[in-house]
Amino acid sequence: MKTKYNLFFAAALSSVIIAGCANPAAGMNHSGSWLDESVPSIYQTYKDKFDYIGMASEYGNFGLTCSGDRYTGTYTHSDWGEPNELYYQEVQQGIAKHANSITMGNEFKPQFLLQWWSGNIGDGDALVDFTASNGKTIKVPAKLNGENLIYATLNTAKKMGVRMRGHVLTWHSQTPDGFFAEGYKPSYSGNLISNKVSKEEMTARHEWYIKTVLECVANWESANGYGPGNHIIWAWDVVNEAMADDASVGAGTWLRGSTSGTKDKNPGDQGSRWYQVYGNEEFIINAFRFANAYAPSDVKLCYNDYNEYMENKTDAICKIVELVKAGSAQTVNGNSVSPRIDVIAMQSHVQAEWPGVAGYEKALKKFLALCDVHVSEFDVEADSQAKAAKAYGDYFKMFQNYGKTYSAAHKITNVTIWGVNNENSWINPSQQNGKTTYPLLFNLVNNVDKSRKPESNLPLYDEGDTYATNDSFWAVINAH
């Protein structure tokens, strides 16, 4: 995603009931609870069109206490953080009714799995030797500080009966600067890390991180009865947002960090520490090679980006996909491994009038000539509910033309909505900046507890609240 979600939430686990019902007849639109029997399931409605309908959600990052085995035990919130979304049984039920895949907004990002909140490794964090496939022996953290967050989140998905898109392994944002610095403790010269590591050491760290995350997931799967053909994480965003908004393939400046708008800048200002270490696309090709080495062969590997329908950026994404596909085989973990990319993931943070269905479809067709496509983070920025609903209907009418019944080799296999409700969306959320927007399919109703003050100052779900369908939801249903 382009912009961060809130950082700190708490959560607990509950069992869920998966519900579904038939499509409504035309004219049955109403603003009912998303759990009402009269409200159809989105993913059941579209199961003839897409393998997965997804929703993004938050579990939260907080102190976790485990009762029992770390892979199969019960995790509970222990000492800090605000509960939100997957903390609550009704939210689990609602997501499981309407989606068969989830994407976690923050929980699988490097920032949350490393948990170096000061931007560098903690003084008390132990280091061990790791010998990478390039022959480089380096010091790496003995563990991921956020490892339990992986298991707790996967436990919740298992209880809900849904699968997950893993988001994200390699990203310029929300990756601590220390990850790129000697001793994991950065020094600076202006916007740049002055003690950045060599490419060889960075490649070794990159392999260690991807290997460690994917092995944590594999160990959890083994302990919980998952395996070939039935993975809890069925797809990974291997690399996220590595193309520049001002990309120019013809000029040779197309990677984030190479262009006038991104060169020598901080990650929060469009820069990339990855590019600052490598100066080229080598790290992207490495990422897809390492992911292919350590992920199951039946798990989809994705490149994910936003503004992907801007023509210059469309061309940049196509170029990196072609370069990854042409990447050479190298020895990784004792095996000869080529880079593998299966999916171009179109984030699809659209505006009501831009890029428009025709502009979006033009980019989509270019991507489908190369790979399957995931619509990975769909939402609509609109200043009225009517505009939002029209956009949702128009886009879903178009999406399904490229789903299961599409005659070409590559198809849209997944559509994920980026969030649960309008009141707690990353995209110009209501009651913030003096602006109300209508990006999502449900609205928060009956906010029973006004005493909580989350860091974001956004309305949060409390026990006893519910979500109601809005006109955008019914536009999606009626577009089928």
Offer a few descriptive terms.
480 residues; alpha/beta; 11 helices; globular; disordered N terminus
Describe the structure.
With 480 residues, this protein is an alpha/beta fold. 27% of the residues lie in helices and 21% in strands. The strands form 7 sheets. Strands 1-4-7-10-13-16-18-19 form an 8-stranded parallel barrel, surrounded by 6 helices. The chain has a two-stranded antiparallel sheet with strand order 2-3. The radius of gyration is 22 Å and the shape is globular.
Summary, kept brief:
This protein has 480 residues and is of the alpha/beta class. It has eleven helices and 21 strands. It has helices spanning 42-45, 89-98, 110-114, 147-160, 199-223, 273-278, 282-294, 311-325, 356-368, 385-399, 471-479; strands at 52-57, 64-67, 74-77, 101-104, 127-131, 137-141, 163-171, 188-189, 192-193, 233-240, 243-248, 253-255, 300-305, 330-332, 335-337, 343-346, 349-351, 372-381, 412-417, 442-445, 466-469.
